[in-house]
Recover the amino acids of this structure.
RNA sequence: UGGGGAGUCGUCUAACGGCAAGACGGCAGACUCUGGAUCUGCUUUUAGGGGUUCGAAUCCUCUCUCCCCAGCCA
């Protein structure tokens, strides 16, 4: 895959140093800890590749752990989707599938321990009051009036919280740390809240649920994680992560933070992605325009391409915006090697080859993948009436256009040289078909007299081709940074109205009749397209455009501001 | 204005006191039965000031800019 000299990163350097110093007995154990409250996206892929990749590299293990401490947001369907996506990306946690919810009893016992040590207390302040008492960024907080309850009372109250004697929101368990800390996370953070709500795994067994800060480090500790890798926004939480582990005096992993991925022209926050789904800006989490792994998979992106991309963007602590062009480069690079080539005409223009015999059909040999001769050849039918791409003919072309125009000769790929002799229009002046002659001497696309043509067009035989729907995708957002919104503006303002274009009756070469859902092809001269796994059926195929080929001509068009409408 | 973090080509990442490098993008060109692929070349960088040093992106210092934190979310 990536033939680059592998470039290191600061986390790898830390691990190498730790192994050298025999910290953790030279072991490396990491974990990928998603909350099952949504679908995984390309940003998660960075974390997955990092955690699983580092573990593999250093002969360690990486666990998959669901951080399921909040029953109001979590669902089994997300667990299932996440499992599928991590597998698809190519990683294996073997038998180490864990759930924070499996540790609830242990967390509870540790909380009791902290209460007994006078390090935690039950607080009766309302959430609004807790907020008030917390102080501000610049002013210290005030201590809760319940802060100095006796250990006995705390123990009793906490037990009764668990038993369900109290209303939701009436009490919480808090760590007794420092209400004047400059770090807000240390101002007596909440460890447990009451939620009379069933949990998708523990059902009604619990009505108190641990907060992230309390649960996360403990889970890491239980699992023997050595390097707990998370994103930068948790940097402020590290002192608390350390504090809990230190108070309990249990095995203490180290938390390391890296910068999360930002991608141009896309949003990568669960909240925003959820909004796109809920408000129907897209057609579900697996809409091919979504940056979710499910969406990208449906779009035709390969795990190899995504992993290569993640490898190339590197890992650091500075916030950055990666150009989506790099992702597209990785996809093209991978698909160029893998995808069989076929001919498909998306916007058909009828061509009559006037000097070709009416009923003749020839089968011409076409190469499946010039990058990989071992992928063999196939035969493509040719006849008197064919379709070419409308864009491949221009009546009054600019000089840079070297496709078909009146009186010019071009090559039909793998077939013949043809020359345009007539343009047929309807009453409104629209071109309805063109007439060409072919040179029988050029069969296969070679001219015996060695004359050259400037271009080669793809085509399909009208009487043999099959029809299909093709969906073209563009960036979901027109703005490079849709997250960067002006005041009273929403990121949805930047949604690209042309992010989806549906072409209903595209003409495909007949070899595609049996194309399997999920299979990916290169439509020659156009791009990579995959058979949609959801809407495609036998006999009515639907293709998704994965990514276009590099397109010099469109650049020329853009530069010169030509009107594309011939 | 409290606490935490970050500043290297347009973008991403490397260089760990010793020639600022690679990739993507962009621009040119070569080649080509995909205006694809491939190949070649060019493009352009240490936020700023001061200091230490034979030598600083790297160490010290001051300044500037950007990001994160006031959920009983993770």
């Amino acid at each position: 895959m990536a033939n680059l000299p592998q470039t290191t990163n600061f986390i790898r350097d830390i691990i190498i140093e730790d192994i050298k110093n025999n910290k953790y007995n030279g072991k490396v154990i990491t974990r990928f800890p998603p909350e099952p409250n949504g679908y995984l996206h390309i940003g998660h892929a960075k974390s997955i590749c990092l955690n699983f990749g580092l573990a593999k590299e250093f002969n360690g293990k990486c666990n998959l752990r669901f951080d399921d401490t909040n029953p109001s947001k979590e669902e089994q369907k997300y667990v299932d989707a996440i499992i599928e996506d991590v597998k698809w990306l190519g990683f294996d946690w073997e038998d180490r599938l864990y759930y924070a919810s499996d540790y609830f009893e242990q967390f509870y016992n540790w909380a009791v321990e902290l209460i007994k040590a006078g390090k935690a207390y039950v607080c009766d302040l309302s959430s609004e009051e807790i907020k008030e008492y917390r102080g501000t960024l610049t002013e210290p907080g005030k201590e809760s009036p319940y802060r100095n309850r006796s250990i006995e009372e705390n123990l009793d109250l906490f037990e009764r919280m668990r038993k369900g004697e109290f209303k939701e929101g009436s009490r919480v368990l808090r760590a007794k740390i420092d209400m004047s800390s400059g770090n807000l996370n240390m101002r007596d953070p909440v460890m447990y809240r009451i939620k009379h709500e069933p949990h998708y795994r523990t059902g009604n067994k619990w009505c108190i649920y641990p907060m992230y800060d309390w649960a996360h480090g403990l889970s890491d500790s239980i699992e023997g994680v050595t390097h707990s890798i998370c994103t930068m926004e948790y940097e402020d939480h590290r002192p608390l992560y350390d504090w809990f582990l230190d108070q309990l005096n249990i095995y203490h992993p180290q938390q390391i933070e890296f910068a999360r991925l930002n991608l141009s022209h896309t949003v990568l926050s669960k909240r925003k992605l959820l909004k796109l789904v809920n408000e129907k800006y897209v057609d579900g989490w697996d809409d091919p325009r979504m940056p979710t792994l499910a969406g990208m998979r449906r779009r035709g992106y390969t795990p190899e391409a995504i992993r290569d991309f993640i490898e190339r963007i590197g890992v650091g602590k500075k916030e950055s915006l990666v150009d989506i062009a790099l992702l597209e480069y990785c996809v093209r690079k991978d698909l160029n090697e893998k995808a069989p080539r076929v001919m498909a005409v998306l916007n058909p223009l009828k061509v009559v080859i006037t000097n070709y015999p009416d009923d003749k059909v020839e089968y011409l040999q076409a190469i499946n993948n010039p990058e990989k001769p071992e992928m063999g050849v196939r035969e493509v039918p040719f006849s008197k009436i064919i379709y070419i791409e409308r864009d491949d003919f221009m009546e009054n072309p600019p000089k840079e256009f070297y496709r078909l125009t009146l009186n010019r000769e071009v090559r039909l790929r793998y077939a013949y040289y043809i020359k345009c002799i007539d343009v047929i229009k309807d009453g409104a002046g629209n071109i309805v078909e063109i007439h060409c002659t072919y040179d029988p001497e050029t069969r296969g696309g070679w001219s015996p007299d060695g004359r050259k043509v400037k271009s080669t067009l793809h085509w399909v035989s009208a009487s043999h081709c099959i029809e299909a729907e093709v969906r073209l995708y563009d960036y979901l957002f027109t703005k490079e940074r849709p997250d960067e919104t002006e005041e009273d503006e929403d990121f949805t303002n930047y949604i690209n109205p042309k992010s989806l274009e549906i072409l209903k009756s595209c003409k495909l070469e007949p070899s595609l009749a049996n194309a399997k859902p999920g299979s990916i092809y290169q439509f020659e001269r156009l791009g990579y397209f995959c058979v949609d796994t959801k809407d495609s059926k036998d006999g009515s195929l639907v293709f998704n455009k994965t990514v276009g080929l590099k397109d010099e001509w469109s650049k020329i068009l853009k530069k010169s501001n030509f009107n594309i409408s011939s």
Summary: Chain A has three domains: 10-260, 270-340+468-558, 344-458.
